[in-house]
Design a protein that fits this description.
By secondary structure, the chain is an all-beta fold. The protein has strands spanning about 1-10, 10-15, 20-25, 30-40, 50, 60, 70, 75-80, 90-100, 110-115, 115-120, 120. The strands form three sheets. Strands 4, 5, 6, 9, 10 and 11 form a six-stranded antiparallel sheet that branches. Strands 1-3-8-7 form a four-stranded antiparallel sheet, with no helix packed on it. A two-stranded parallel sheet has the order 2-12. It is globular. The N and C termini lie far apart (about 40 Å).
């Protein structure tokens, strides 16, 4: 089982940057992909970025392409660099991970979730 712990994030004004991190522990060698799923108030969680652990290929939703960057380091940690944040990016950001056989494109594919970090973006 993969356990996830997010860190980073804070209140930010529109146009500003912010960085979130997610450290995996437990059965980290079984990870296939990790992702970020923000959840806006009253809405479903939607993936904005994911990364394949082996190879490092990435994918982004159209809403964040060019503004957000997902990356990983050797400490089993995935980072989300967010630039040009807008009020519509506000939400609780959940880190997600799946092992081989799962996926990171939708919430139904995900195997493990972090507790979430709030990211309020003010105008």
């Amino acid at each position: 089982h993969v356990r996830l712990a997010e860190s980073g994030g804070a209140s930010v004004q529109a146009g500003g940057p912010l960085r979130l991190s997610c450290r995996a522990s437990g059965d980290t060698y079984s990870r296939y992909c990790m992702a970020w799923f923000p959840q806006a108030p009253g809405k479903e969680r939607e993936r904005v970025a994911h990364i394949h652990i082996r190879g490092g290929s990435t994918s982004y939703s159209d809403s964040v392409k060019g503004r957000f960057t997902i990356s990983q380091d050797e400490a089993n940690t995935v980072h989300l660099e967010m630039n040009s944040l807008q009020p519509e990016d506000t939400g609780t950001y959940y880190c997600a991970a799946s092992t081989w056989g799962g996926g990171c494109s939708t919430g139904d594919d995900v195997g493990s979730w972090g507790p979430g970090r709030p990211v309020p973006v003010s105008s």
